[in-house]
Design a protein that fits this description.
This protein is an all-alpha fold. It has one domain: Orthogonal Bundle (Cytochrome Bc1 Complex, Chain D, domain 2), CATH 1.10.760.20. Helix content is about 70%, strand content about 0%. The protein is built from four helices and no strands. The longest helix has 18 residues. The chain is globular. The model has no long low-confidence stretch (mean pLDDT about 90).
Length: about 90
């Protein structure tokens, strides 16, 4: 099973990456910019594997640039308390 297929595993994966970035000194702006780039890549290149990802993909497809940045920022907040290295 791909990590993309299970929402909780996906959030833990993202949480781990967030924790790594923070421990390496990345600031919030940089993290949010990377989250935006990742969201844009996923929306263009990866088929959603579960209902939650489908909702995010659908929202991303109709969002303005500013709204996409907001979605990315909210995703960062969502995964802040996820991850296996807590």
């Amino acid at each position: 099973m791909s990590i993309l297929e299970n929402w909780d595993q996906w959030k833990n994966f993202l949480g781990d990456r967030l924790n790594q970035g923070e421990s390496q000194g990345m600031d919030e702006g940089t993290i949010n910019s990377l989250a935006f780039e990742i969201g844009d890549y996923l929306a263009q290149s990866v088929d959603p594997k579960n209902e939650q990802q489908r909702v995010l993909s659908d929202l991303w497809s109709v969002a303005s640039e500013q709204e996409k940045h907001a979605i990315a920022s909210v995703m960062v907040k969502l995964v802040e308390n996820n991850g296996t290295s807590q």
